[in-house]
## 1
Amino acid sequence: MKCHSRNLLTLLLLTVFLLTPTTFAAAKKLIPMGESIGIQLELPFVYVAHDVLLPNGQWLKKGDIITEVNSEPINSVEKVEQNLSGNQLTFTIEQKSQPREIKLTNEQANNILPFLKDETDGIGTLTFIDPESNQYGALGHQIVDGVLNEPPEFTTGSIFLASIEQIKKSTPGQPGYKISVIDKDNIRLGNVKSNELYGIFGNWETNISESLREPIDIMQEDEMKLGKAELFTAIEGSEVEAFEIELTKIEENFLQFVVTDKELLEKTGGILQGMSGSPIIQNGKFVGAVTHMFVEQPSKGAAISVTEMLKKSPN
């Protein structure tokens, strides 16, 4: 999708939910979701999350990879801790693909542990579950680690139910956002099999029958009409609510809409960062998902049709 308006901010890209070319292509009904989820990707390496000035004047720079401690290969923070024995330790660091060594005392090494990470985590929106394949699509964009500035290689991934604790309202020129925390029960909803350009997706592991929503038909593009529709999303706790919107423009596979729901406008100012992927329903059928907001007019948003999403396939 090309955005020619300088005021159009991409919150998330497009949500695409194909694990293989046929996984969702034949889907006729999907369960619209809208829950806020926590996402955790476990990495096969350890990196430095913040710049750290060492006592000898050297720096550990944000994004440095720790590859060895005392010549022992390292692939987790736990492995680093296991190798902190002896008074003098040698850390092998890869900085911009160039290896170097630093010497640390045991105390100094323990002091840097809080700055080391071996996972990427964040909050996203669950878009739908395919009841036939038990697979889900979520988030609507590729996860890019904020420190590494690239999609991280990961070994395993999980999604968890998250609760909205606070909302930072959108105002013209200032996009708002959701502040979420992982649900206290910490129950894994599913795995993450792939982190692609168009979203994360994987296998749903909990009982689909527990969903409050039933599978609904996918709306074909020639059925879409200007006018009233609903947006499913969570703005308080973990409860998904339906909010009124109005479709104002339909152009092939892409839609524009305005939020007309007074409650949503009062609480959020319109569209928030983190709402992308929220399902849009019209006349009881799955139309598509939110993809963008207009920065200067946060009550306005853009979406993609679900039929177009189902044509896409991650490489």
## 2
Amino acid sequence: MEYLALLLVLFFVLACIHVLTFDRGTRKSGSLKIPPGPKPLPSIGNILELPSWATDRTMLSKIYGPVMTLKLGSRTAVVISSPDIAKEALQTNDQVFSSRTIPDTSRTFNHHKFSVAWLPASTQWRKLRKVSALQIFAPQRLDATQALR
């Protein structure tokens, strides 16, 4: 019984060390230029503080400005609370915001290079989308393959 308790304590200590050092090793200082925001907790980020932020957004914008960074688990989110800045950001940088996060499972066999779902908005994506709309998912093609389905 004592052996089991000692093993449980050892596991807990190792897990705490991992959680406390995980976030520090992944980010280099000065490599990312992100807007200011509240300090996140290791591993969970700012998720515990979200309910209080949803009720009083003006307080956050007074503290951190109209553009702030929130850490939601392992993801970093940029929150824009000013309509003018949001309009400017989404109109001038629409190509940057339209890209998708590519999961590692699609990278294994290079599916992210040839799939319409994972390609960024580019000429190759437009060509593949046009071909799929006109040739693959056209009503005449779907009617022709109905017996096979």
## 3
Amino acid sequence: MKVGKLNWDDLKKIIDNSRKVKRDEVRIRSGVGEDCSVVEFGNYECILSTDPITGADVNAGKLAVHINCNDIASCGVEPIGILVTILAPESTSLNEIEKVMEEIGEETQRLNVEILGGHTEVTRAVNKMVISCTVIGKALKGRSVATSGAKDGDDIIVTKQLCLEGTSIAANDYNDKIKDVLTLEEIEEAKSYAKYLSVVKEGVIAGKFGVNSMHDITEGGVLGALWEVAEASGLGFKVYKEKMPISNITQRICDKYSIDPLRFISSGSMLITSDKGNELIKILEKEGIKATIIGKIIKGKGILIDENIEREVDPPERDELFVLEEKIQ
């Protein structure tokens, strides 16, 4: 099998076949495109999500916190606590584990998220360190936003720039290899993208504003996230390549290694659908968060328009980060 997420059909089949119980307390169930589950507890509901870090070496602890807290933020709520599991190969030093936990501690402090527990183990089952986290959040009953809530005619909004995570991984993990693509100053700027991976602020703002759907843009890039939102909502989309906010630095890395920035891992950017896109953008920008309308939710298929040519968007496959790793080594 290829490295990366399972394809949509295989994953959906496995999820459907393994889900033997459906509890009445579960208001929103996780699934393909729906990263969080929401469980009702009286007047409140608990939001839960889990994800591992496998594709990065530098900043792995930082990334582990943000990709999980971002899932909770995509429900429009603030994350409260995190559980951390670290599986390390025999070659790992205690200092390396301490460094990862130091990163996790620093990022959770910034987000006001408590480390609730976890598990740390050295094992022959892995050949590099794997960090898997579970995050929980809390909201009033019925307030959490679902990925599946997109409506026909909604504006599609993305925050900040796309590919922040992918670009920062490329600059940090392959510093020496991209010196023929970027200047030293540009490499440092690309590394600094790791500072902007959280979408908790915009998620909470959008949740209070009252949006129809949200999804943090991770593995599979913006096209993968769009496809998952549309599939979960039973709708399609029409987006424009020229409207995608991609930095010059990111574009040059993608051009050099012939990878698609629209399918490049993009933690740090939230995908939002709302029938009041321009109004939401003004609110976000007042809070210092850049936001861009890239298209509309529509009935039918997912369509990308590139130089007036329409093409249907396929289900997400493995992220371009894994393609970059193969080409750059």
## 4
Amino acid sequence: MKKPLLEFTDKGIYCSKADVYLDPWRPVQNAIISHGHADHSRWGHQSYITHHRNVPIVTHRLGKINIQGKEWGESFIVNNVKFSLYPAGHIIGSSQIRVEHKGEVWVFSGDYKNEDDGVCTPYEPVKCNTFITECTFGLPPFKWMPQEEVFQEINSWWAENKSEGKTSVLFGYTLGKAQRLLKHLDLSLGKIYTHGAVENMTEVVRQLVDFPKTTLITADTKKEDLLGHMVIAPPSAHGSSWMRKMVPYVTASASGWMTFRGARRRRAIDKGFVLSDHCDWQGLLDSINATGAEKVICTHGYTEIFSRYLREQGYDARTEETQYEGELGELNPASKEESEA
């Protein structure tokens, strides 16, 4: 039986012909990294390759490492296997990893979305024989509104809170979601204040994208300074002593999970905005169709349901276990990503 070009092992997705792992979750010699979230870029590998826009993000998180940056579409050969990176549209510097050997092409999508968010390089479909896809939101109820409509809702919510003399506290993932929020907030309504984790990561990516001015909340920041203004913070800040400085405040979360009211109630959030850095159900299907792939491997998310649907549509689809979280990290207050950012 022919050995597959990519295998799922206890260390990660492995290309034995090149002795290279894609987004490995245990320390390995050679790693190609799709993006900077902690579940995909981990410490301990001997060498890292990623897109050059992801290099400052990964080094900020992991410290001094042996890392190379590549450009979109730039081919690099390892033991006669050709690798290249293409935009995933997930967060700044996020890539799909294309692997080619003797005419066979696999694409590992990492995490991705096919809506242009105005912050990261937009998703680009890549033709392949086998496509490895996430399915974080692989259920029909997940259907995103256009980003412009979501931000109209967010800015209207901010304006209403301001008129009532309250501080608006908006929770979003430290890397990716927070910067997307920052980029599209209406600055005519007031100032944007940030939690330390958000401020630190935003400073890293300012060299890559032009973001509005923010003000770090410190011990010297007074409640009166914040009234009527916007605060962007990681979900882990909710319910912490840090929030006392915001009183009186109104909270909101920006996440794909806000599709379900129960998710908002469980986190005791006043308002939920459905905004995800992953594809919705239709986005996943459209993206897979655009690859022309005959085989699809489903990882992290609603894998069984989504793969079964794909098989009903004629794909050769199956599931594989990984240690990726998708957007589950947004619901986990102890998220490693937030604690390190």
